[in-house]
Amino acid sequence: MKLTKNIRLSWKALLINKSRTFFAVIGLSIGITTVMVMVSVGNGANKKMTEQFEKMGANMIVVNSGKMTKIIGRQQTSLVTTLTLKDADAIVEECPSVEKVVPTADTYVKIKFGDAATMSMVQGASSDFTEVKNFPLKSGRFFTDIEDKQSKRVAVLGSQVQENLFGDSNPVGETILINKIPFEVIGTLISKGVSADGANEDKVIVIPIQTSLRRVLNRDYLNRIFVKARNKEVMKSAELELESLLRKRHRLNARNKENDFTLDNKLNAMNAEKESSEMFTWLIVGIAGISLFVGGIGVLAVMLLSIRERTGEIGLRISVGAKKKDIVWQFLSEASMLGISGGMTGVILGLIISWVIGATTQWQTYITFSSIVFSVVFSISIGLIFGVFPALKAAKLDPIQALQKD
Q1: How many CB atoms lie within 10 A of CB 1?
Q2: Distance of alpha carbon 28 from alpha carbon 343, whole angstroms
């Protein structure tokens, strides 16, 4: 009952000067809104990045031939011819942390169907391509191990290649020309968009690896091997096993040479990106905290002015038996009311602005329930922290002097 009475008296006191209370609440809400929007953008970026890596296969390690470098966000590798199909077979047989592998060899060539033509990456791969790369089929089927061993001229199209060559028509069963060699289209892949590495996953044609090496590329070495670890927990072990095995097979230890391959651990890359994103988010939140500090100063100013205007009321309450703790709780109640009002207003504005950003821009926003609770609690805390000094000052007033000043 006493708490309810305190809340009622607090609202009554705050509404005496509506404009002053309004600006104090707005000051707090601006800070909370800024925090909410920045956190939602940061969470959205993390969520989108996680989804991208999950699409690629979070427990996947890519063995690239040669030394891999990044130029303007895109991966480039030096030409090395030591990575072979026998390496892929050895990885499955000798690395206990590895579940499956997909050896690949690719090149960009001209693709034709009737009068339509497009440039596309033709990627030779094994039959486990869709599982290891987490790349489901949209229609048709994928080629089998037998078709791979027999070097069959069959192809599975990425969504953009399908659109460029066939439009809305179903390409399954049609024949396309890859580098002037006829291939039967047996399936299509779902759309995945641009990968975290900056590659367009939809502009690809997948053919059997044996067909790629013998009929299209006329070579015996690979560009890369996609390795699927048994789970995320053994990623590090799988990476160490891969490095040890390939160094042994390529006879690098005996000659004390550097690796002629590069391991790209997607889980490490995802964690690194997450850490960078979280650091940026907390930096922005720290800057937004300055706005909250300014809002707290507004609460302090409102409370100090309120004490000055209500000196007589405070003196009267003390003189009729009110204890110091009652005065302290009264003014802390008013400060917390300002904090709650500012927090709720900031959360509502933050939700609206975050939704608008997500709906009208390419930035994905994501708000968690915990961030809403944190924002409200933080706003109340700001109100209480900056209300402590005025509350203690009010409680220390001498009732006689207070009544004389009134």
Answers
A1: 5
A2: 7
Give per-residue pLDDT as tens, 167-208.
Answer: 888 999 999 999 889 999 999 999 887 665 667 888 999 999
With cut-offs at 50, 70 and 90, classify the pLDDT of residue 1: very low
Question: Is a pLDDT exceeding 50 seen at residue 340?
Answer: yes
Helix extents (H) in 95-207: 129-132, 145-149, 159-166
Check if the beta carbon of residue 217 is closer than 8 Å to that of residue 105. yes
Decide if 196 contacts 203 (C-beta within 8 A): no
Please report, as a single letter, which amino acid is at residue 97: S
What are 124's two structure tokens? Answer: 């030779």
Predicted pLDDT of residue 254: 73
Dihedral of the CA atoms 204, 205, 210, 214 (nearest 10)?
Answer: -90
Under the phi-then-psi rule, with left for phi > 0, alpha for psi from -120 to 50, and beta for the rest, what region is 281?
alpha
160 Cα distance to chain centroid:
25
Measure CA of the first residue to CA of the last residue in the chain; give whole Å. Answer: 30
3 state SS of 20: helix
- Residue 373 tokens read as 């609770």
**Portion of the chain with pLDDT greater than 70, in percent:** 74
Which is nearest to 63 in space by CA: 288, 229, 257? 229
CA atoms of 45 and 27, how far apart (whole Å): 28
Pick from 93, 88, 161: nearest CA to 129: 88
Q: What is the pLDDT of residues 200-245, one digit of tens each?
A: 888 999 999 999 999 999 998 999 999 998 888 888 899 899 999 9
**Token pair of 354, please?**
């975050």
CA–CA distance, 302 with 24 (Å, rounded to integer): 7
pTM: 0.62
Given a cut of 80, whether residue 23 has pLDDT beyond it is no
Give, in order, the Cα–Cα distances in Å from 130 to each of 2, 23, 136.
Answer: 66, 58, 6
